[in-house]
Design goal:
elongated, 280 residues, mainly alpha, 65% helix, disordered N terminus, 12 helices, 2% strand
Length: 280
C-alpha cells in the first residue's frame, strides 16, 4: 500500500514562511531528517559522507531560510537544496555509469518461466527472499547513472509527487517520467533474479496488449493511484510483471524508512543552537 509523503498539514505552506529558522528547521529535521539521511546514503554510499551531507543540507537551509517565501511546500524547498548539494559533491566523483538500457531492452524476454511472487509468502522462505530482493534493489540503485538515480530516489524512496521531483531537479515532468520508467524496469529486472520461477502458459493475447498494460501501470505508479484492471485481461506473464513492479516499489519505499541516527540528530541540534546564538 503506497503511503505518499505529504508535508505537515497542521501548518499551511504560507505559515511556514512566517516561522523563524530556529522554529522551522528543527521541525523539518524531525519530519524529513530520516528520509534525507537515506537519500544521502543512496548517493554517497558511505555513512560518514551521508552524515556530512545531511548536516550540509540543513545548515544551508538555516542560512537561506529567509529566502523561503511560502510559494512552494517546505519539503520541496528543502529537497531542492539537497539536490544541489548532492550535485556539487557528485562533481568530485568519477566512475559512475552514464547510460542505462532502453525501455525495450529492459522489458521481460518471453520464455517458459515467470517469477513466482507467491514464494514471498511461503513461511521460512519469506524473510530470506525479502532480504535478498531488498539487497538486489539497493545494489541496482547504486549502479544507476545519477541522472536516473535522483528522480527514482525522490519519487520512490522519498515519495514525492512527480511535479515536485520535476521542480526540484529543474526537469520537465515528461523527462522525469521517462527516467523513472526505465529505472523501475531495471530495478525490477534485478529483483526478479532473486525470485524462484514457475512455468507459465503461453499468453492468449497479443504482446502489444502487454505493452499497453505496462504503460498504464507505470502511469498509475507515477500518479500514486491504484491500477484498475480487469483480471480477465491479464495473462499470467502480465500479472507477474505488474506484481513485480509493485514489489519493486514497495521495496524502494522500505528503503526510506527509519530515523536519523541519534549522533547525527544530536549534532544537528547542537549546530542549530550554535547558529541561533551567533545570529542573536
Amino acid at each position: 500500500m503506497q503511503d505518499t509523503l505529504t508535508p505537515d498539514t497542521s501548518m499551511p505552506t504560507t505559515a511556514w514562511s512566517d516561522q523563524p529558522a530556529e522554529v522551522a528547521l528543527p521541525q523539518l529535521m524531525e519530519e524529513q531528517g530520516g528520509r534525507l539521511y537515506r537519500l544521502s546514503l543512496k548517493l554517497c554510499k558511505d555513512a560518514h559522507d551521508a552524515e556530512d551531507l545531511v548536516q550540509e543540507i540543513f545548515l544551508i537551509a538555516w542560512k537561506k531560510w529567509h529566502q523561503f517565501k511560502g510559494d512552494a511546500e517546505p519539503t520541496t524547498w528543502l529537497y531542492t537544496i539537497a539536490a544541489r548539494a548532492c550535485a556539487r559533491r557528485r562533481r568530485k566523483r568519477a566512475g559512475e555509469p552514464q547510460t542505462i538500457e532502453s525501455l525495450s531492452e529492459l522489458l521481460p524476454v518471453p520464455g517458459e518461466e515467470i517469477p513466482d511472487i507467491a514464494s514471498l509468502h511461503q513461511g521460512p522462505l519469506e524473510d530470506q527472499l525479502r532480504r535478498e530482493t531488498r539487497e538486489a534493489v539497493e545494489q541496482a540503485i547504486a549502479r544507476l547513472p545519477v541522472h536516473f538515480r535522483m528522480p527514482l530516489i525522490l519519487k520512490e524512496i522519498v515519495e514525492l509527487p512527480i511535479s515536485d521531483v520535476a521542480a526540484i531537479l529543474g526537469l520537465k515532468k515528461a523527462t522525469v517520467k521517462t527516467r523513472l520508467h526505465r529505472a523501475r524496469l531495471l530495478l525490477r529486472r534485478e529483483l526478479v533474479k532473486k525470485l524462484p520461477l514457475r512455468r507459465a502458459p503461453r499468453p492468449g493475447h497479443s504482446r502489444q496488449l502487454c505493452f499497453d498494460l505496462l504503460a498504464a501501470k507505470q502511469d498509475a505508479l507515477d500518479r500514486d493511484v491504484p491500477f484498475q484492471v480487469n483480471e480477465a485481461d491479464l495473462c499470467s506473464r502480465c500479472a507477474a510483471l505488474l506484481a513485480t513492479l509493485d514489489l519493486t516499489r514497495d521495496t524502494c519505499q522500505s528503503l526510506g524508512e527509519g530515523e536519523l541516527p541519534s549522533e547525527l540528530h544530536q549534532a544537528l541540534t547542537v549546530a542549530f543552537q550554535g547558529a541561533e546564538s551567533s545570529s542573536s
